[in-house]
Every structure is written in structure tokens, then in C-alpha cells.
Design brief:
- The protein is mainly alpha-helical and 293 residues long.
- The chain has one domain: Hypothetical protein af1432 (Orthogonal Bundle), CATH 1.10.3210.
- It has 17 helices and no strands.
Length: 293
Amino acid sequence: MSRAPVTRDEVIRRSRLMPSFPGIVNEILATLDDPGANLNALVRCINLDPVITARVLSVANMAATRGRRDAQVSNIYTATSLIGMGKVRSIALISSLGNFMQSTALPPLPSAFWEHSVAISVCAEELANHVSVPVNADAALIAGLLHDIGQLWLHALDAQATRDCWQQSTTGQQDIVALEQQVFGVDHATIGAWLAEHWQLSPSITTAIQHHHNPDAALAQPLVALVHVAEVLGNALDLGHRARNRVTYISSAACEQLELVWDDSIRPLFGRIEARSRHANQFFSPAERSAAP
């Protein structure tokens, strides 16, 4: 019996059964151009979430210990002055979106899904800070973390069929997008874009999610090129602990759009990505998941 193609209406209807999209994400995006308001909004949101608060303070206290600071960091303002606004935002975004995605995944997804998503978010954020083309690093992190959110939706719809598509794409020669279109009538990138639009994320993030497998179709948005390259780079560096990370395609046009130069000057970027990816994925360890409320 053939499956009826998945439609946008079905995706939105089923998304209402998911947990509420974390408001802190849109608050951070809405205040990026006002550093003062951004700090106050960020602190207010973090203080309402004990898990994120604990994670921020833990990182700040580790930094304080390395700096031989005696007093313990006990509030978000002090943590921000110590480790920087960018790192605090990264922790808040990864934590809030990670918890949202985990609570959405029923039945549970393999840990490799989370590790890959976090790794690509780190790649995207670091690339945004590395390239000369202006791309907002927070938007890059969000788009990187959510780039495969459509796979999570498909997994909730039909876990076995979704796993079969994953396995065939890693062991065979077929692209995951083509396989999903054959089975579901639509691919995870399109579903992810529908969800992002429904959650009122910015058009640039929505477009980056939609075109991360075919960036040449939307290169007017630098974030599209960046998320595509971030995923390819994450796979090339073997981040995310997937059984098989295949690099089958990288858009030369996307690399040109970002003005990327693949020489020895990029090696420090690789080191930062690998170190931050390992650290960020601690948020998704079994112990962390069981400790989260």
C-alpha cells in the first residue's frame, strides 16, 4: 500500500502536538542589534530555566578556576562578563533547542542524531565568525542545530521508514533527499523549512534549513551557503560519531560565496570546531539527559 505524500498542512497540524518552541530563541534573535537589551533579555530568560542557568554557571566557574579566580560565579551577569556574551548565548541556544528537540523525539532518536546536530551548529557558528562575509553567528548556530529538524518530524511519523532511509543513504549511493521523497513525497529539508516558518523563525534561517542540501538554489542568502559548508565540514571532520560520515558533495559556488580559502590558515578553525563540538555534546550525554527535568 503506497503512502499518501506528506503535506505542509499535515506537518503543521502534527507540530501542534510537539512541545512549545522555546521563546528564548526568538527573543535572542529579536534583540541582536541592541546589546544592552540583548543582555537583559538573555539574563531574564536564562534565570527562568534552572538547567540553562546551571550550565552557564558551570562553564563560567570552570573558566574562573583556570583563571585562578577565588570567588565563585553565582549569577548570569558575572558569568557573561567572564566568558563573554557569545558563549553565554551559545549555551542558552544549544540547551533550550536541544531540550526542545529531545522532548519532541518520540520514539527516541539515536544519540548520533543529537551529536550530529550539535556538531553542525558549532561548525556553523565558528564558520560565521571565520568568514569575511557578514553572517550572524547566533542565526548560524540556530540554523545548524535545526537543519535536520525535518528528520525528527519524519521519525515521529514513521520511525522505521525514516531509519531505513538513513541506512540506505549511508550504505548505498542514493541521496537522503531522494530517498525521503520516494517514501514520503517530501524531504526533511522542506519539512524543516515549513516548521521553521511556522515557529516564526527568520526567513534567512528558514531558507538555510530548506536548502542545506542544494545551496546553489538560494545563494543570495549567505546563511544558506554557510550551513551547507558547515554540514560538509562536520562530516569531513568525522564529528557527531555517526557510523559513516560520507562527504559526497560540496558546492563550489557556496565556498566562493563565503570567500573560503582552503589552505593552512584554516587549520585553527578545524581545531576550535572539534574542541567545541566535544564540549557542547556533553549537554547531550546520557547523564545530562537523565538529569534534565
